[in-house]
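@channel anyone free to eyeball this complex?
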Amino acid sequence: MRTIFKTRYEQDLTLARHGGDVFWYGLLLVVMIVIPFVAGEFYVKELSGLLLFSIAGVGLMLLIGYTGLVSLGHAAFMGIGAYANAALMARGVPFLISLPAAVVITAAAGAAIGIPTLRMSGLYLAIATLAFGGIVENIFSKWDSVTGGFDGLAVKTPEIFGWKIAGTDGVYYLSLIALVLVLWVSANILRSPLGRALVAIRDSEISAQSMGINLSRYKTIAFAISAGITGLAGALWGHYQHHLAPDGFNILFSIQLVTIVFVGGLGSLHGAIFGAIFVASLPQAIAIMRDYLPSKLANLPGLEPSLFGLILVLCILFQPSGIYGWWLRLKTYFINFPLQRKASSRRQKSYAKSERLR
Amino acid sequence: MTALFRAEDIAIQFGGIRAVDGVNFEVHPGEVFSIIGPNGAGKTTIFNLISRIYNPTHGRLTFDGQDITRTPAHEIARLGIARTFQNIELFPNATLLQNLLIGRHCHSRVGLLSQLGFMSSVRRAEIAHREKVEEVIAFLELQRYRDQLIANLPYGVRKIVELGRALCTEPKLLLLDEPSSGLNTEETEGMGYWIEDIKKDLGITVIMVEHDMSLVTAVSDRVMALNYGRVLAMGTSAEVQGDPEVIRAYIGSEPVGAA
Amino acid sequence: MEDAARLLQLVVNGTAAGCIYGLIALGFVLIYKATEMVNFAQGEIMMLGAFVAFSMVATFGLNYWVGALIAIGITAVFGYMLDVVVLRRVIGQPQFAVVMLTLGLAFIFRAAAGFIWGYDPVGFVTPFTNQTVRMGGLVLGADNLSIIVGTVVLCAVLYVFFSHTRLGIAMQASSQNQLAAYYMGIPVRTIFSLIWAISAGVAAGAGILLSPVSMIDVNMGILGIKAFAAAVLGGFGSIPGALVGGVLVGVMEQFAGYYLPPGSQDVASNVVLLVTLILWPQGIFAQSQRKRV
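replying in thread with the prediction:
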């Protein structure tokens, strides 16, 4: 196991802990850049979807995993970002302005729902965001003039300084750049006082207050940043889908987003990525599995959501720390081999802690 | 000597129960002031009033010449009041270092946007905070636990980490809520030495809620006894412990042979 | 006179719908009071109960009352097994995990229902379908009235059970203080499973009462979200509150549908929910406490 010998405080602040990190992540980045040149259009499109799920996942992870605020209505922010961007572009606003504008609008929406819900505890907040998601979905279908209502809204091709970013490759690179940017910003947040404040709010609101953290301010900031990032994913989602419809941002989508965060591993950026990989590849995996199942089962319209639900249930029962938790266990096993201790990977028994007394 | 902190006729009512009723006391700079009393006397409630988690229904709180009766809870740290909690309210999923760094939050001056980009001003501020935190770690001898998760640390160490986190806020007034609860005799003695060091080396004023009389006698300059939310006695440790009202509150009747 | 009749019609419809929401909310509240778990699959359990009743009455040809009782019984057993097999294992995990778990279960139930009964809406004949009742010059649907009467009966039964039987009192005790209940020799884990059973049975009852009014299909469980509005309005943790909340939501929906622009009815319950959470989170019958540090 690599031991890092620290001589300067700066070493605790850097994003890459050691040369190995730089190498592997750098290699990953190079591979991601090169893929459109070697892989077929189908794979590039799939990867674009994955990248967009990752961005939304990171946005939601900051809120749920790091600040401890559960949102079951985040698809609403995807939708707001998507419709804001598409509607602005439809009115002739250039892409370079409409995209950041969509992000800002969504962040404002996040703050708008964050403020009234400041005093709500976990459960009530979850229900409130659920209601919020439903209301926003309703607004999308009723506000015809902006969103096109049930007919939907066609999304124009983005253009930067006259250069059209068309095709699956174009969307892919936009998404990749966005993801790298979002990951960088999130990592910055996590090593700053802001990140510490968010984690403090998650773990103990009362002592966070005693340490000088203004709960209202930071919860609102968390909502705004989370919504803004998800709005960015939403705006790009519009270009990915080419066409927006109000029922594309329903409660099922919100639950998929929460699943990304939860199954991936709460409380880590890696978790958001792993979760996104899981949720994005599930439809493909099911399609492959269909060939092996008896025909009555395979042709079931509800097969996908049921497997979704089943995996969610199994994850909570057997591996609540998610895919990232599993990945860490695997890494520790190989690093410590053959001296691994069984007890360090066993789940600890915990007792019910009442949430009624907050 | 002007008082650093003053509570004037402070009272709070929960429904029909007066948890704190007409309590008056002053704390002078540099002293260790202990509050004792049976369980349910209102001691921790007073702390919650001072750190502004509760709003008093009556009375006034003054700190360093400033009226803090209606100050929001999150501004107390910036003014110079820090506290520890009876049941340890650390952040279990973070390392000791991260917990102590949160104590520096009230001294954070960097803007939101600079943090999003982790500009060099943020980097410099982080290193300055780290240096301050290391001073506290050195003072409390916590070096070996620096990178460990709080969840993995023994209870006695966690008590000291909470103390450290409060010290990181560079307070003028430190509120210690039952610092010896859950500690054995040696650890309690150790805690006594830390409190003495805090008073003598750091010059911080301490208000302490305690049950352990040996600790109270060892470190306190003055003691106040409470029962049913009211002050029973105030004075030196010996005076208060010998007061017949106080004895009656703890034991329930006049001791045999008392004057 | 015509306006009064229309108003009454809205109130009756709203009350009937509200009773259903209230019954589902009742199930939520029962489980929450005891175990602090929120069962996001409550609506789906109602759906399963309704489908089982359909099988009993329409497929196996049993008498309506017999079939209904059997369906309630089967669903109650299902609720019991659900607790024993799945929910018991997540005690001690944060509330968010339980939320995700029950959401996952909701998906599984929906797919299972689709697998067993298909995706087309079905219905079965009840003694109340297409019947009307005359009351003082007004004609009201017997189906709506049956819902209201049925709810009242169900709640009366539950009230007697909780306050006058040993088991019911033991349940109250376990909800209020688990540790003390254990000390008194109450088998708390079994009690909780029984609470799940009752909750599931009540949900099945709601589904059966609903069947004359709306068809039974796989997506019925979406009413669960409206039931949240009922539970929150009534004060999450209060049993009479759940019903009062339900009726209020139902009536508000009807009025919104009639007096406000089209589409308001769909969003009414969400708006009520959000507004209540923002302005009166304790609901009508408040039940909250504060952490002591």
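from a first look: Chain A touches chain C through 52 residues (CB under 8 Å).
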